[in-house]
Amino acid sequence: MGTIEESFRKACSRYGIPASTLTDNGTVYTTRMYSAEPGSFERTLALMGVRRKNGRPYHPQTQGKIERWHRTLKQWLAARPLAADLDALNAQLDEFRREYNEERPHRALNRRTPKEAYDALGKAGPDPEIAAREQARRDREERRDGTSARPSGTRRRNGAAGRARREPADVTVPARTHKADPRGCVMQKGIAGRRRTINIGKENAGRTVELRVDHGIITVTDTTTGEILAEQALDITRDYQRRKPLPGVNHAPRHM
Hints:
Layout: H1 4-15, E1 20-23, H2 40-48, E2 51-54, H3 64-78, H4 86-103, H5 114-119, H6 128-148, H7 160-164, E3 173-179, E4 185-191, E5 194-199, E6 208-214, E7 217-222, E8 228-233, E9 240-241
Parallel strand pairs: 1-2, 5-9
Antiparallel strand pairs: 3-6, 4-5, 6-7, 7-8
Region (Disordered): 103-179
Protein name: Transposase
Pfam families: HTH_psq, rve_3
């Protein structure tokens, strides 16, 4: 069995690269629960320009659709003879996937199949800015490693030319839970060395939310519903982060 990165790339080669992923907090998907450094899968997503989304800890309802799908799959398998080996089981899984996605009309989709509904809509793609930030971060790591190995007699280049190549902010802060104040703002210390105020809209005042920063992208999520309330680039020159409109694809319950 390959790694999660290999499986993801294989799926992308068949279906295309998605705009975002939504997973639970398993360590194969994210290290955000115990480290500020992204894990291997998170780095892979960033380099591909894919926005990473994680459900609220101990709140499986965020992934409710796939959990419901798993239940249907288990019921379907239970009604069939037990597979004799792994190849037979994979054949059954392929049969279920084809029947579920391409043959069986769905009541919630006006009797269309999931594939028909999926093919009828335009698709959001990966974000090149995320990929550029990740590539810039990797380039910095390579330069830093090269600098540490440079002979002591050599000099580091600096000056205007070096300052002109300023890369986007690459700031990652583990998720924390807050309650939005009456203004619809969330305040948190330690974001790029300063306390920041993030405006998520007065209509969200009083909500309990989770705030995280991932490679310079601020994401604020409702801890109860999983709805993304704010998702925008961190402006490290400002303590107050003005709210920016959300693209339609970034609403977690709809974008699945």
